[in-house]
Amino acid sequence: MNFEIQILGSSSALPTINRFPTAQILTANEQPYLIDCGEGTQIQMRRFNAKFGKIKHIFISHLHGDHYFGLFGLLSTYNLLGRTEPVNIFADKELENILMSENSPIKYEELSYKLNFFHLPDDTQIIFENKTLTVTAFPLKHRIKTRGFLFKEKKRQVNVIKEKISEYNLSIQQILDLKAGKEIEISGKKFLNTDLTNPAPPQRSFAFCSDTAFNEDIIETIKNVNLLYHEATFSKSDVSNAEKTFHSTAEDAAIMAKKSNAKKLVIGHFSTRYNNPTILLNEAKEIFQNTFLANDGEIFKIEF
Ligand SMILES: [Zn+2]
């Protein structure tokens, strides 16, 4: 079962030719989830062959333009394509006001599909779940209300060993019992569940933290995450800018990865003042070696 993110935009406020503003797609069990939607997100989805039409759920961290201006174009395009499947948007309630206002370029009554809004809570809460995963929203520390998102796979059932099915000619009911973790009896002989099954794979997780000042309050929520995406807008030489604008330095991101015991860190949301963000990568790696730069189009597979 796949569990991976694709970077669609890795720049901070100002887009460049190579880096668009923030947007990412998490794909879990073949279902894509869009996280933030900066200007030009739909172009990036086409450029990088993302599963554009399959997106049902969109998560918006906050209402700075570089994280949601792309929604207007995307929602309009879905309408022009005659989409009928509803679109679910998880965002601050103000976004609903903006999109539904009289002067909004999105004419709700004329859309070919239904737009559903889910308002993000103030505290840490599960905001979405299905058979595959749960999504938890948690507060970040930024100039306006901003949420991070933790995507976590649900616990899966144990796998019945194929050879054992034929060896013991297991019935459907016996297979179901084994999958449910029960022990079974075959011709009067008791078997332990572990004799006939392989353990379920561990649950994988992905945390998305953009935009935010350094904030240790979230460590408990993102503890042991497999992949942490954390913004790293500034170098340590520009720490005063980071403090002023409630953003993080590459070092801040790396400390967060270390303290939360993340397995891997991807940094992004780079200020355009750095022609080459390798300087940020090197600063982060001094503290957390397993750090990677987000580059538009790049896919990071989330391993067990
Ligand atoms: Zn922001």
SSE layout and pairing:
Layout: E1 3-9, E2 23-28, E3 31-37, H1 41-47, E4 57-59, H2 70-80, E5 87-91, H3 93-100, E6 115-119, E7 125-129, E8 133-139, E9 147-153, E10 159-160, H4 162-168, H5 172-179, E11 184-186, E12 189-191, H6 193-196, E13 197-198, E14 205-209, H7 219-222, E15 227-231, H8 239-245, H9 250-259, E16 264-268, H10 278-287, E17 291-293, E18 299-301
Parallel strand pairs: 3-4, 4-5, 5-6, 14-15, 15-16, 16-17
Antiparallel strand pairs: 1-2, 1-18, 2-3, 7-8, 8-9, 9-14, 10-13, 11-12
Provide an overview of this structure.
With 304 residues, the protein is an alpha/beta fold. It has two domains: 3-156 and 201-301, Ribonuclease Z/Hydroxyacylglutathione hydrolase-like (Metallo-beta-lactamase, Chain A, 4-Layer Sandwich); 159-198, no CATH class. It is built from ten helices and 18 strands. It has helices at 41-47, 70-80, 93-100, 162-168, 172-179, 193-196, 219-222, 239-245, 250-259, 278-287, and strands at 3-9, 23-28, 31-37, 57-59, 87-91, 115-119, 125-129, 133-139, 147-153, 159-160, 184-186, 189-191, 197-198, 205-209, 227-231, 264-268, 291-293, 299-301. A seven-stranded mixed β-sheet has the order 6-5-4-3-2-1-18. It has a seven-stranded mixed β-sheet with strand order 7-8-9-14-15-16-17, with helices on one face. A two-stranded antiparallel sheet has the order 10-13. Helix 9 packs parallel to helix 10 (278-287). Zinc ion is lined by residues 62, 64, 142, 211. Zinc ion (ZN) binds next to loops.
